[in-house]
């Protein structure tokens, strides 16, 4: 039986409620993570150390019954450490695949920018096709495969910038900032109720694999009005002609934004999208995909500044 919008909203509320038992504040961040999950996208979380990026990914895995895997990226990590390798079995006289940690449902790629480009490239096929090729054989990772990657923008020693091709495979780049004062007080207050060093509050699994699949089907069934499609296309094309942008976004970016818009509408209980959905998701979906030109860099403009200007110049459908 197909999931209804009301059931979908109830599922999302249950997920939010469990995650908020551990993550104080960050309501918009949690919502964007859920949008990415139901839109079949991947998320890149960027923020200074100690802002619960890794903890957020772990919480999401705990509130579902999906398999969870974690890769701590380091400079000496090799592609085989991610994908797995075929090892020769002397008893059977044949090669046998030893699967790597990428064979999971929710993958936490922790500090992804610490791995060299050779290792980062191991994720390209997995993130785009949800499959990996090892020794000429393609292995499916499943339709639920979801990557949450983290990186620290402050520390540059021993890090490698992510290739543009890999950045383009992330639906969102979410900026994780420090919580506000009330949220920090809530975090510290929770800690005083537990012995020092004890793990965080245990969470309850509220979403099964079947529920996620039904959520995907519901989002897929939402159709975008022609005016919304044209609005998305006009915005993405505007990034390619803007004088402050050296390289604009790809068609893949427009497709990804359209999927995210459908998921946001569903989470809001609507079977139709609004221009507000596009405007709310334009920055997180595009900030990592544009390359600023020298003029913008000299003026100290950020990707968000340039994208906001493009958004303000483009007329929204009425």
From TrEMBL:
The protein's superkingdom reads Bacteria
Show the Gene3D superfamilies listed in the entry: Magnesium chelatase subunit I, C-Terminal domain, P-loop containing nucleotide triphosphate hydrolases
Q: Start and end of every AAA+ ATPase domain? A: 39-180
Instruction: Recall the taxonomic lineage recorded for the source organism.
Output: Bacteria, Pseudomonadati, Pseudomonadota, Alphaproteobacteria, Rhodobacterales
Q: What is the official name of this protein in its record?
A: AAA family ATPase
